[in-house]
Specification:
174 residues, elongated, 28% strand, alpha+beta
Amino acid sequence: MKLLKYVSLFAVVCILMACVAGTAFAAGSKTDPVEITPTDGLTITEKQDGDPILTMKEAARLAGEKEPEGKVVYQWNLHSETLPAELTFHVELTGTQKGYVYHWDGSKWELMGKVNTPITFTDLSPVGVAIFEPAGNGGGEGGSPKTGEKGLMSLAFAAIALGGAAVFFSKKKD
């Protein structure tokens, strides 16, 4: 019976440690999914009221992508001390994701190029980025697990199995 208490305590401690460690590992991921470089002389502000909105539908149409496969759109107001400005919009893409950069030319949105490649702007504001991912590859139902989710589930099952083994062996001795 003592063994069961010790193993149960050990399992609970393992679960608590896994929860704390899982949170710490997940916290290491980037908070902003788009990084714009270079930043020298560049001012980046959030989209303002009255700015034209880059919709997923418009982004998909311009890029030749299917709208339902769209994942997310980011938009900012950018200002540079010098123009033309060559900027790169860095985005960590999976193997199936595609990312595009857009610019409002004063009357309509235009496709400027792909993310992770240098793009020259003669005018900047507003600018948007759209990320497309086919459904089923993390963009829709049944996608990939969130950061740390798979590891925590494995540890939880291991703790349950350990507890079950402790019960089995303690009953066997009785």
